[in-house]
User: Fold these one by one.
Assistant:
Number 1:
Amino acid sequence: MKTFLVIGLGRFGSAAAGKLYDMGHEVIVLDEDEELVQQCADQSTHAAIGDAREISVLKAVGAADCDCAIVAIGSDLAASIVVTMNLKDLGVPKIVCKAKDDMYKRALERIGADQVVIPEKEMAIRLVQSLGSNSFLDYISFSEEYGIAEIDPPEDWEGKTLRELNVRKRFHVNILSIKNTATGAVNMAPGPDDVLSDRDTVMLMGRNEDIMQLQRM
């Protein structure tokens, strides 16, 4: 179990706090809006009202003892920067920030945020990746450069072993698992001698551009 501090209880912050709490982690939520704090009280270990721009407030809620802080203010860059700097001064091991655009993201990365996410942009990328091709069953972009996709493999892969396909060398992706859509069986550790059938889908990982090139075959 880890301890998380979630600052800012809009849609993103409250959803993150609720999910972490459901996963069994200790979750501290903090916002200036009393109503938002009350709404999240049942999905947190401790709910506090206060201005995270004041380092004394962060100290009072135990920010220094948290494993990770999520700064979910998003729309207020100045506030996000001050809060992030406060968290850095308190020695929080990992700081994740929400940003509304790439300019915000660059600014937050420069002042020390360990990870910056743009939820709307990342959701849009995942959506168009899924909708843009009939071969994609699901797509997860976990960075601007890399992703994981479940696809219907190209027809010429049918009946061939993974050794013969050699996808790592030819397409610069790695096959993580093979799923038989008829039986639902999943091979989580496919070997070089496993043969793909016309009923299989594959989960693969690689650079987003390599995955996109592969799905166009």
Number 2:
Amino acid sequence: MKFVRYILFFIAITSILPAWAQRSDYQPEFTVGVKGGTTLSRVSFTPTVTQSLLLGYTGGVSVRYIEEKYFGLIAEVNFTQCGWNETFEEDPYTYNHTLNYITVPFLTHFFFGNRVVRGFINAGPQVGFLLGDSYESNFDVNNLPEFSQKSKVKDIYTMDIAHKIDYGIMAGAGIEFRIKKNHGIVLEGRYYYGLGDIFNNRKKDVFSASHNQIITVSLGYLYHF
């Protein structure tokens, strides 16, 4: 399974490389931007942890270069919140765990439309660097209550995040509106699937898989040089 993840990550990286080799008479575009938005996230655990989506936020800066008609490249640096919000069925307990990352996506940018209104699709790899994490709970994680759901993975409440670097693949779509000559507004939705685990996944460990999954909705401003 881990080998398959590495292969998928390699494919995502190499998918952006052909753009560097392509050239045409298309008038190049260079754009910088800022954005902010909301994240909805969970962690895919094996064994399963019952959960709902955790609400967070994201924001950052981007650089976009287009030299081919309908095709370009994007690099970003973002602050991204993600994690999981555990559910407890009939028990009156709450627990959520937030992970704060600096994320760096490298994306292939496919667009269509005209200079005023464009639709687009972005896809490529992302690397994240954990800044820190925190949790909120209405029970003592060091003195656990009796849960009615007997399948609860109780070790999760006191486990430290083992891997500070996250990596995975991202895809998204959106629409861009050009305002006057040099200004633009972008609305975009993205989905990120982590290929790495946040906890150790050896046979003796609690989880064999723990992948970040993040939905992002953002609004951004672009300046066209």
Number 3:
Amino acid sequence: MSSEHPTGDPVLRLENVGKCYRRYARPLDWVKERLFRKNLAVEHWALRDIDLELPRGTSLGLLGRNGAGKSTLLQLIAGTLMPSTGRIARTGRIAALLELGAGFNPDFTGLENARLNAAIMGLTVDEIEDRIPGIIEFSGIGDAIHRPVRTYSSGMFVRLAFAVATASDPDILIVDEALSVGDGAFARKSFDRIMEIQERGASLLFCSHSLYQIERLCQRALWIDRGRLMYDGPAKEAILAYQEALDRDILSEHKHAPARPGDNGTPPASGTARISAVAIQRDGQAVDGEIIECETGRTTLTLDIGIDLSHDIPLPRVAVSLHTLSGIMVFGTGNFDQPEALKRVRPGHAEIRFTLPAMPLLPGHYRLDLGVFCENGIHFYEVISPLARLHFSHPAPTQGLCILPHTWS
């Protein structure tokens, strides 16, 4: 476990923190336990022995499967849950983007809810009145701010909740899968707002199933599994350790199961940039079909990709990834280091070519995915999964995923 943490005054410290839930087989057992002073509950520890320091102005990602304890940890830090063991010390104001709008009263107007929730976050009356115009403008709901929120669409509700939650100047910003709120355009705005808060010096706690987002946003990451801290270190190293564990489990699960396309966990298609056309060539010849036949070390694959985009956004980035059918990522890349490769050929349309020469993949079936995301490499506008399936063959007996340059002597 790495000890290379950023330096600075800690705004958050957890010492031996744990959270235990008591479960009963029947509701009546709770009453019997108190009457007869006999333990009838089964203890479930959602978290155990968590120690953590978060220096001021740093970003920390949170990794783990569903049910690992990530959301419980964030709720403990936010103060909406109390720990069963240990101590939590916080410095300054916390803004938590957990369950957006959870504190809204459906019969209050949007304006009344905004004022009430801003007060709960610790803003003074003068601060609230100063920020209300910005909240209304950012949410984009206009005159609907004066209507009861029970009349709002789900998108309006989420936009207002996000605008209120980020209206303070927090010392700690907690984000739990909140970058995909609302429609694609607002999701982009929400990401920009989070980046602005972080740039003003707030410490960021970011929980996401998107490993790419964590790597781009966070300096450091924690991996939690079954309520215990498995790894604490630089984000890239934490992601690698977590991915290796996932790969081992996937291989174990699929050892005796038929191969099938996996879910890569990327956000659903949404936003203001779209993949409008993809032409696939194998060794210079156009191919079209569910499965593309390839030969190890010889087949070259070329993708000519067209992107339709709104005029008011910067040129996006394009990502390509290869996976085994059991879900293990073999390779993933984007044109982040070569943004000029995506060319505007006419207003509202850009094109790019991606080539994989002499692919060294060993025999087997693979899934090719394609995505387009914002210029910062965080928010996905659209994902096509699978774009194509590849079947590789090779005459020599080999094992593994790819053939590496080698010699015998």
